[in-house]
Amino acid sequence: MKRVANLYLVGLMGAGKTTVGRVLARRLKLRFLDSDQEIERRCGVKIPVIFEIEGEPGFRAREAAVIGELSQLSGVVLATGGGVVGAAENRRLLSASGTVVYLHAQPEHLYERVRHDRNRPLLATADPLARLRELYTERDPLYRSIADVVVDTGKQGVAALARDLLGKLGERWKASA
Prior knowledge:
- The protein is α/β, with parallel strands linked by helices.
- The protein has a single domain (7-172), classed as P-loop containing nucleotide triphosphate hydrolases (Rossmann fold).
- The protein has helices spanning 17-28, 35-43, 47-70, 88-97, 107-114, 128-146, 158-176, and strands at residues 7-10, 31-34, 76-79, 99-104, 149-152.
- Helix 1 (17-28) packs across helix 7 (158-176), helix 2 (35-43) crosses helix 3 (47-70) and helix 5 (107-114) crosses helix 6.
């Protein structure tokens, strides 16, 4: 049976991984981490600056290194970056070392949440909604391929979403965490 000491949140940007992750960590009495924030802390700059200097491949290499380290911890709730599933090794590490939750949302809902956020380098384009739709098409199957639980974020609030997710995780996860 899969070890479930960690809870990993995956999904597109704006799905609520960081916000919901903090709530879940508090309720489960686990440590909360965010892989994007960890990368920024280590580099001393925001992600758009990393993209500007190193491009997406440079950022993804940093992301893979951080996921490699953080997936070795125990007792954490980890909010991952939206593109983490692009690398097969990241998917393998997450799937093997914890419970993966896919916070699913339609691109149109995500766009409403992130359209004013300038910290999203992949949306620095003439048509950010079209880009979100492309990312959704590419990544949705990858998120689903490793997800133990899929939760539709829809329009519900954070507290309701966390409650729904805890219900879906069930006693089996809580007992083994």
